[in-house]
Design brief:
Layout (H helix, E strand, L loop, with lengths): L2 H4 L5 E5 L4 H12 L3 H4 L7 H11 L3 E3 L2 E2 L2 E4 L6 E11 L9 E10 L3 H15 L2 H9 L3 H16 L1
Helix pairs in contact: 2-4
């Protein structure tokens, strides 16, 4: 699985403007609702509830300005992912107490144990690289972000 397989052009968003963690999660879910993986299943309701419930178990702010909120969704057809950068970092209760300006939402079918874990690990591994985060933060557009996400995995495989 590559990052390029996780995201679509519609689920990569550049410089959204939010002022709180809850608002960020709402925007991530709203963007996810555009993904065919969700609309094909008719599964666009109560996504926010599932994401908020997972967040109550512990923060998904992994540090270095990155958050990876995620949830398993009953009757979801396939994995859905959203990538956003924020115009200004926000408080997120991250493990390192730093504000977040990059977020990836992962929604997985309820029974997709290993696929969900592989996607989480892959996204986390890519976003732990400081050079990659810097390039993403400097991207001028959603199209550039999408290209970097796709190209980033191709260069990892080389």
């Amino acid at each position: 699985m590559s990052l390029g397989n996780l995201f679509t052009r519609d689920t990569v968003v550049h410089k959204i403007s939010v002022s709180s963690k809850k608002q960020l999660l709402q925007e991530l879910v709203k963007t996810a609702a555009k993904d065919e993986a969700l609309t094909a299943c008719g599964k666009t309701r109560d996504l926010l509830g599932a994401v908020l419930e997972r967040e109550r178990l512990g923060t998904t702010g992994i540090g270095s300005g990155v958050a990876i909120p995620h949830a398993r969704i009953e009757n979801l057809c396939k994995l859905c992912a959203v990538f956003v950068t924020l115009d200004k970092p926000i408080s997120y209760d991250a493990v390192d107490d730093r504000p977040v300006d990059i977020a990836v939402l992962l929604l997985a079918p309820e029974n997709a144990g290993s696929e969900h874990l592989r996607a989480l690990a892959q996204v986390s591994r890519a976003l732990r690289r400081e050079d990659f985060r810097s390039r993403l933060r400097a991207a001028p557009s959603a199209e550039a972000l999408f290209s970097m996400l796709t190209e980033g995995e191709q260069s990892d495989a080389a």
